[in-house]
Amino acid sequence: MYFVTPRQLIFPGDAVATADSRVEGPVYLDNGKYRSLVVGLVEFRDDGVVIVPLEGVYKPKRGDLVVGYVTDVLATGWEVDVKSFMPAYLPVGEALHKHVDLETTPLTTFLNIGDVVVAKVKDVDLTDEYPIILTLKEERVGKVERGTVAEIAPVKVPRVIGKKGTMLNTLMELGCDIVVGQNGRVWARCKDPRDEVFLASLIKKIETESHVMGLTDRVKAEIENYKKTKQQAAV
Amino acid sequence: MKKSPVPLLQNGLRADGRAPDQMREVNMAVGVVSNADGSAVVSYGLTTAVAAVYGPREAHPRHLALPDRGIMRVRYHMAPFSTKDERKSPTPSRREIEISKVLREALEPAVVLEQYPRSRIDVFIEILQADGSTRVASLTAASLALADAGIYMRDLVIGVSVGLVDNTVVLDLNGLEDQYGEGDLPVGYMPNLKRFTLLQLDGAWTRDKFLEAIGLAVKGAEYVYQKARDALKNRYMSIAEEIYGR
Amino acid sequence: MASISPYGKRFISYLRREQIKRLLSTRYRVDGRGPEQVRDVEVKVGVVKTADGSAEVRLGRTHVVAGVKVGLGQPFPDAPDEGVLVVSAEVLPHASPYTEVGPPDESAIELARVVDRGIRHCGYVDFKKLAVEGGKAYVLWVDLYVINDDGNLVDAANLAAVAALRNTQLPAVVKDETGIKLGRNNKSPLQVEVAKVPVAVSVGKIGGVLLLDPTFEEELSLDGRITFTFSEDRIVALQKSAGHFTQAELETALDLAWRGRERFASALKDVLG
Predict the structure, then answer these.
(1) Measured between CA atoms, how close is B6 to chain C, in angstroms?
(2) Interface ipTM
(3) B160, B236, C186, C214: which has the fewest C-beta neighbours closer than 10 Å?
(4) Number of B:C CB contacts under 8 A?
């Protein structure tokens, strides 16, 4: 039995369903009832109910693409902030393809504090000293030297990508390189640095108005408008 | 005990005109500190508490981190200009340190700390105006800020105070009643789970009055809980409506 | 206690810093402003009812509350016939992910002292009128509370302080058998000379470009920062708080700050009356 209705806003402690129901998402069982752990939205699917949280910290999963900031240089690797509740670790063996002699080559020659990397989550093990292990030994990952990073709430990442990538494809019309990290960081590089500012503001807009009907069309219109204004200015 | 300059109870009404079982005006807003991961401001009458949550984030220093669960750090503090008379020294008093501890222990049963191993959740509460019941207003503000940060919580924790004035049980003590009343009983309550997480008491209470007060506290907490839900709705309803259309 | 160079605490990525610099070289800022543009500023008074005077300032997303409490105390020995001003600042742990719990750190103390110096000597408050009989004096405790830090705390805190003083009610001095004390049931407005209001304007330097009203991110990218406090047409306080300036830059910064003063002064107009 369900105590919720489709599309309902739900708060921590609210009863969702009896224990014999199918419920997914951040819920817990208390006295035979599933209750919500978060402020979220109720979605009914064919096989049960899903609670979709509206806020929250990034919870890394193996295989996630993330954008990270190097925050410390350690003996045999780097500490990387990936906007989660603990720092990630990038071991030197996962960053470089060839062997380096750490006695003679300081690690800072490869990556230093403040550097930005696009990385894959290689492993997550909460019992480890460094529970999140990153790797750069994959396609389309590595240190990024130029561009900008827009910060958004990690739970809003699906909205920036859009259904079947529609929103991301719309953003691509600006002609910039874009990487959407699952951790709520979007890296972008454009030919004109002012396009990066515009793109970052668009991504912020998608975050705050993330769920407006027809947002993709509005974003499309804004991009057209921006391009037009820019052309006129150039003439 | 010192005598109040004005009668605390007259013809069944309190000095500020309230009935014994009446809250002061309750106002709340969620998401008021843009840098914080979660935040809320709560006022019961003049008493105003601003709470900000940062985290879960890496626990510093490292040796404080626990391998299987997160830790919480709670700070309750009063602004120097928050009291009616003299400026309060900004140095944390023994009172503020104790309240920080009981508030942490009132929030911990609600927060699913096992979800955040090796990390720390910071809850900062500042009293901008004080007129009684500051710790319970703080508790409501803190739990709203935690929910706003998306931290897993079993329930909200709602704070209300009850007290004894002229041997009558009253809800939501103001500063005057706190100072001159015969007893003060601050309560933290999880309205869905119907469990108490903060209980303190001073003064002298009979068993009957104590139980009557607990009953009134639950009633008050349920009233404040509806206001807390409204505050969360104000922040998040627009999102819900936008997803699905009106 | 010594002052230590800040390390690792406040973080900005290399990428972001480069972006800020690159854009500024075309006189454009990451939030879309030009170098001389100040963010929206809002000043409200009387926001804390338990204080004797209060104000809150929002400068963009920076949010500062100032509360004034009036006390009775001893005047300073070198000014026995004057009232006392004590400005303190606390950057609440609420204000940013980088603020730590504890007594005010060196930057909060600097913030309070820069605001203090602006007010102290400009004649906005006539401290001679704050002496009380019996060798006592009024003490004006101005507490600056930073609730959200998105940069340029000095300019925002100064506005909050002067607005809160304008809003301050002095409790009357009452005498009884135990001596003199303050009676908060009988208050009268603190007299301030509105025309002399001190206005602090900070100028930042990034890659050779001078700019007004830096944000938190811009502050992490600064090559220099200087704050001028003006009263009427004079400079009443100055603080270089980061980096270095050439003489030519100093002159340009002064002119830029003077233009910024207009913007802040007009934001104060309504509350000063």
Answers:
(1) 15
(2) 0.92
(3) C186
(4) 88
